[in-house]
Amino acid sequence: MSRESEAELSGESGAAALPGKLPETLRTELIAFRRDMHMHPELGNQEFRTTAALKHRLEQAGLVPQVLNTGTGLFCDIGTRDGTTAASGVRPMLALRADIDALPIPDTKAGVAYRSTVPDRAHACGHDVHTTAVLGAGLVLAALDREGLLPHPVRLIFQPAEEVLPGGALDAIESGVLEGVGRIIAVHCDPRVDVGTIGLRTGPITSACDRLEVTLDGPGGHTARPHLTTDLVTAAAKVATEVPALLARRVDARSGLALTWGRIAAGHACNVIPQHAELSGTVRCLDLKSWREAPDLVHAAIDEISALYHAKSQINYVRGVPPVVNDLMMAELLRDAQTARRGAQSIEDTEQSLGGEDFSWYLEQVPGAMARLGVRTPGDSARHDLHRGDFDADERAIQVGVELFTAAALIDGDRS
Hints:
Layout: H1 3-10, H2 24-39, H3 48-60, E1 66-67, E2 74-78, E3 93-99, H4 127-146, E4 154-159, H5 169-174, E5 181-194, E6 198-200, E7 203-204, E8 208-217, E9 221-222, H6 232-248, E10 258-266, E11 272-273, E12 276-285, H7 288-308, E13 312-321, E14 325-326, H8 328-342, E15 347-349, H9 359-363, E16 368-376, H10 396-415
Parallel strand pairs: 3-4, 3-5, 5-16, 6-15
Antiparallel strand pairs: 1-2, 2-4, 6-16, 7-14, 8-12, 8-13, 9-11, 10-12
């Protein structure tokens, strides 16, 4: 890597007018924090160790974190009069949000000292990076506040259970994390974007994601006489193939409504027509309006096809998350913050993905935006993806995230 590229990655080539650069000693500490968290992944609503570690470090910085009512996750205010709530009569706070849970998959990375020590658990979505970036930003902002350089209070939100539909964001909101908050920002790791760069988009940046479980039942019988019973395997196959096709003709194609099956099961013997079949999958949608209509459309299509083959259907449609829809002004705040730190060349346009993110629930309450945080090492030509056991992040992304959040807080405060 060239010296110029190294300078860009360290932020040395960006504008230096803003305070809040990440000190080298803190950078080293944060990498160690991320690695420890990576080695000890915890599933949604089980993040007790992670919560305790965050609480301890924030208290060391003189802050007053509050654990959520659910017992895991916490929030913490910086720059308020009593350390816990927004001062009355001031502009509502900017919140920085991170998610702290891991995935129920094995860590398959080789030759990495910080590989998961917990069987079948891994931080394979980058939540450890998100968490460390928000923690680091909080520590930097707390230091600025002690110097009288923080123009407006900020809230840190460390949310549990992002991977558990319909998302821990709902429990966090119920615990009061948005009280006194007027705006919210977040990042999500993107292994397709080089470290030092962020991806931005105004409007929808993720899709809605719901879970669907269908059971089909019939009297069963002999495969020699399918005409005398309900041919349940054929009925299940028709539901699997024809319901997605039917939905594609009942909604605007631009809405991106897609039903994809991940599991289908029926029968135990080759010459027995079963009495029970099961299908499960996900419903994803790019458009918020179509997402609100999706349950009725899916129910009607499944009932229609299953009735055609005389199968009795039961449908469990589990509401997941709406799309993350980035607010124009908040996306511009992230753009201005990244430009101030690393220059306009460190920002790229990004497309809307079909992945789901429960950050969307916060945006149902307050305006906000999410950026895609580049975690790919420049020059790496391999294809990496999230939710894989071999996922890892270039740890220089932590510094990028910290300085993005701190710059956003300072710029937002100056505009109040």
